[in-house]
Amino acid sequence: MSNNKVVEIQKLLKQFPVGGDFFTALSDINFELEKAEFTGLVGPSGSGKTTLLNIIGGLDSPTKGTINVLGMELGSASHNERAFLRKTKMGFIFQSYNLLPVYTVFENVELPLILNKVESKERKRLVTQAVEWVGLSDKIDSRPAQLSGGECQRTAIARAIVHEPALILADEPTANLDAKNSHQIMNIMVRLNKELNTSFIFATHDEKIMAYLRRIVHLEDGQIVKDEIIENPEMGAI
Amino acid sequence: MLFHLAIKNLIGAGIRTWLNVFVTAVSFFMIIFTSGMYDGMRSHAKQVTIDTEVAGGAYWHPKYDPLDPFSYEDAHGIPPKEIHELIQSNDAFSVLVSQASIYPNGRMMPVMMKGIEPNQSIINLPTQSLLTHTDDLIPVLIGSGMAKYTQLKVGDTFAIRWLDANRTYDADEGVIVAIMETENFKVDMGTIWIPLDRAQTMLDMEKEATYITFSKKSATIQNKENWIYRDVNYLMRDMEAMIKADEPGAQIMYMILLALAGMGIFNSQILSIFRRRKEIGTLMALGMTRSRVVTLFTLEGGMNAFFALIMTLILGGPVFIYFALYGIPLPIDYSEMGLIVAKRLIPVYTMGLFVSTTLFIAFVVLVLSYLPSRRIAKMKPTDALRGKIN
User: Fold this and answer.
1) Which of A190, B91, B280, B333 is the most exposed place for a label (fewest CB within 10 A)?
2) Contact: B282, A100; criterion CB under 8 Å
3) Taking residues A94-108, what's their average pLDDT?
4) pLDDT band at A176 (very low <50, low <70, confident <90, very high)
5) What is the C-alpha separation between B234 and B239, in angstroms, rounded?
6) How many Cβ pairs closer than 8 A exist between chain A and B?
7) Please, what are the domains in chain A?
8) What pLDDT band is residue A238 in, cutting at 50, 70 and 90?
9) How many helices (DSSP H) and strands (DSSP E) are in chain B?
């Protein structure tokens, strides 16, 4: 795997046991992602995009095939090795934000740094910087219940980027947001991608997101049916 | 790091945390309180028994068996020289025990008649009252329990019948010269106290005794002949056994309280895992290993015990101090049940009690927190993120 390759998947098969049988969620997936790509896994509900995202994130394991993410062969990696990879080199953004309700914005964003045992002063600096990035400095002491949907998602983005990961996986990040907030969120991510060279993979069927993507991988019934490069994304420029 | 997160989670959970902590604190309080009561009861009973009966120990006539009234008629003799010297130096006193019958208000009642040196000051009984001039009547001292049972008052006379050393029955009139208030039922119920010299004359056992009680400060003697040395531990063993027999009741109470607190914590942990499964998934997605998540949840449960201890000290501390100073008035007279219990019970709280209770509850709470948290280890991160639980 070359230094520029962030993800490399070959002949991936993922099946789930259903009753006495198996349901094939993904089959014959071959996929590569270069550094600083801004890619979307697009397809209808049940096409396997979240499953693929989870496998890339090491949250789930493939049934067959090889998957190498950021230099680690996930198929043979242990739970703890995969957790370590997520902790140090990955960021996650979820559709329903998944913020910890009893923590403030600062504390939610600080969490990955605590897990990475970053020293307290440095944590404060990095959290402040990440919160500034997403434009939430004035809400730093608020709890998720006191934030709007857009602000929650911006907090989740700050949490995903605070430890400067190489890869960010975003599962339907704008699904719960209105158009204005969706564009705001996407603009932040495009900026991050350009300024920090962070690779992004989105699982989405939101057309607003697609307008920002520079590569769209179409999934249908668990298979890649089309992989297109968008030279000039509609909304890609900041 | 986990400690820091656990504190944040607990404090952030607000009322849910404080309710759990309160339930655990109540258990802590009740366990310490009831244990303190038992320790207080034991300590009081021991103190009263030593004070009014046992003193520093006793030398028994070899045939004396307090549990066998038939042994009394043979259990008497002149004490050996060294024991006699102890008596002479006021470091010990003699008691002569015999069976007798009394006839208060026309009823017959078997009693234990004990002759005691009226001037003794080794045990705390008002034996000086036996020096009251009563013409030829036998001066008798009884306890308030006995007085209640026989309906005798100071000044009442009644017949006493006894068997003397010559196996001859004799009888005379006795008069109540004093009624003593005592918590020790053993010197009260079924016992009449008369002056030693009178008992020796009545029984035709001049200079004889059944046992000699010595003071706490008197030295052990070398030549006690065949008289049997009984130390405090031996003389207290019946009472200790009685308190011990009552311990299972306290332990059941202890277990019920602990089970209540345990169920609260167990239930809250299960609920917590169910409610917070998305959070668990998020923590896993952020790179926390399953074992660390289990530790975090166990720690949260375990910290309940710590907060509960603090709450017990803050809320229960003044109550403990109040009862330790002023005691707890008991509504019933337990002496009628054959127990040496103060009318106002002073609980005894020792550091050992606090430490052992804390360690025990902390251990139970940790185990109860860990058991439901183990479910997390089986959870798939993807299921947890979807809010699904197995």
Assistant:
1) B333
2) yes
3) 91
4) confident
5) 10
6) 68
7) 36-57+77-229 (3.40.50.300)
8) very low
9) 11, 11
